[in-house]
Amino acid sequence: MGEGLANRTRRTFVLTAVVALAATLIGAAPAAAQPEHSDAVRVWNLYATDALINATGAVPTPGAGQAPPVSQLHLAMVQGAVYDAVNAIVGGYQPYLPDLPTASPSASQEAAVATAAHHVLVGLENDDVLLLPDAVRVRLDGLYADALAGILDGDAKTEGVAAGAAAAAAMLAARTDDGRFAAFPWQEGVEAGEWRPTPPGFGNDLAWVGQVEPFTLESTSQLRTKGPNAVTSGAYAKEYNEVKDLGAAGSPRTPEQNVVVQLYTANPIELFNRTFRVVSEAHGLTLAEEARLFAMLNVATADSVISCFNDKAFWNYWRPVTAIREGENDGNHKTAGDPEWTPLLTTPPYSDHPSGYNCVSAAYMHAAGAFFGTDKVDFSVIRPIPGMPAVELHYTRFTDLVDDTIDARVWQGLHFREADVQGAGIGKDAARWLAKHFFQPVK
């Protein structure tokens, strides 16, 4: 059992509905005064994740099916534009993008949110080719029309639409030629410690993510990690044997470990945005506060993802499935090889160090802590599983979740622990950088 799980006494394992979380949190803070239709940010966050990824639930919604790193970049664009549109009306905080026109304080915030989110989503393109499938864009057009139909016609609606359109246009322009989808393959190695394609798919993709222009950071390499342990070291042998013993397809795991393993196989972008929709509603945030929260969450995580993939390409380190099968050839007498070793989960087609899942989880959790001004918040993370009870973990601190995702990627056989720990460090640093330099109150 990992050290984090053994020492974590505040966490409980439950199988309950999302309603339980809302009921628990509503009493934790007084509800703030809410402007018009304060669910608009949460609603369009749901529409965006559905459109970029794929909906979860009994009736799937058509989605683009983008990989988590790709969808995170695009969701950051959506939420950044939503924030700028609302902030242009409400004011009080720095805009994300400079030189945006201010809007009338009486403009419809709901119209601004819907317009900004819709226009960014349907405007996503690569080499003049729209990224979302026709069916997805048609659905978004319908949802947008419905949203506007629910707002009383007049100057407020018109001005809200204009604010949203301006923010969306600025975001799409700012991210043009930002490096998305540019050809940049992984470098395959043959020596001990060097990454090579892994079974069963042997794919080789997404290295370009690490070359994308950051949203807030000064460079793609700003958050460079110290790197993985040398394969001849005792530290490497320790983490090698840990993942070999606990991460194999047939490794025995406790019920608690299995809950962690099952929960954190879910797409983290969909999982954490859904989680924070519940948290934000339960805390009674205003529409403007929700716009800032979801911008901070997703922009910080986008920069964490960019940094993570840049670091992966820099270190180009082998995955456990390669390392353990080559264990007799690594020059370390403490690492017995097993040419038949298979991880619990299929290994993603890119290098081990650092862990992308932990770059993501830590960025979300530390950005949330920066927004709320505390790490101590009760919340639950829930993964619905068709035909089975939902898997849920309850936490009292945001960072307790990161302890679990670090353990999870070892127990799933996907990463050495150092890759998880240093990935979480990237997420933490990306969130702290953003909180220090962006989305600040206007003095």
Topology (SSEs and partners):
Blueprint: H1 3-7, E1 12-14, H2 18-26, H3 40-52, H4 68-90, H5 109-123, E2 125-126, E3 129-130, H6 134-149, H7 155-174, H8 234-246, H9 255-263, H10 268-282, H11 287-315, H12 320-325, H13 356-372, E4 379-385, E5 388-395, H14 398-411, H15 417-437
Antiparallel strand pairs: 1-5, 2-3, 4-5
Written overview of the protein:
- The chain is mostly helical and 443 residues long.
- It has two domains: 288 residues, Vanadium-containing Chloroperoxidase, domain 2 (Orthogonal Bundle), CATH 1.10.606.20; 142 residues, Vanadium-containing Chloroperoxidase, domain 1 (Up-down Bundle).
- The protein has 15 helices and five strands.
- Strands 1-5-4 form a three-stranded antiparallel β-sheet, with helices on both faces.
- β2 and β3 form a beta hairpin.
- The N and C termini lie far apart (49 Å).
- The relative contact order is 0.17.
* Outline type: elongated
Tell me the count of domains: 2
Mean pLDDT: 91
Under the CATH scheme, the architecture of the largest domain is Orthogonal Bundle
Strand content: under 5%
Per the CATH scheme, the topology name of the largest domain is Vanadium-containing Chloroperoxidase, domain 2
Query: What structural class should be given to the helix and strand makeup?
Result: mainly alpha
Termini gap: 49 Å
> In angstroms, what is the radius of gyration?
22 Å
Q: Strand order, biggest sheet? A: 1-5-4
